[in-house]
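Postdoc handover notes: sequence design on the structure in folder B. Input tokens:
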């Protein structure tokens, strides 16, 4: 009947919206985990003194969106300040103090 058909379409639309919401949340979680991995790789290269390999990973952390809004997320899981600070150390050591200051102004001042 027409009524059953309308309910089916409404149920399908609700399922699509629910699936989309779940997929968006999973994507945000993956971005958080990717940011953590990128930060850790940058930190490892930085620690080893291979700074030309560390820089792109720190920059990648800075380019990602903020962490997802799910329980436990927030500032504690946003690695941008740490990545920016470490990047500023690299820039300062290489003599690019203006670039270091710009990164600190953009990401580290509250």
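Designed sequence:
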């Amino acid at each position: 009947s027409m009524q059953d058909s309308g309910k089916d379409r409404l149920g399908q639309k609700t399922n699509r919206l629910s699936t989309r919401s779940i997929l968006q949340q999973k994507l945000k979680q993956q971005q958080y985990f990717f940011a953590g991995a990128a930060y850790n790789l940058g930190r490892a290269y930085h620690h080893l003194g291979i700074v030309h390999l560390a820089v792109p990973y720190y920059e990648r952390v800075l380019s990602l969106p903020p962490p997802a809004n799910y329980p436990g997320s927030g500032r504690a899981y946003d690695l941008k300040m740490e990545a920016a600070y470490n990047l500023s150390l690299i820039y300062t050591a290489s003599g690019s103090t203006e670039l270091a200051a710009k990164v600190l102004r953009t990401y580290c001042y509250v």
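Context for whoever picks this up: The two ends are 60 Å apart (CA to CA). Don't rerun without checking with the PI first.
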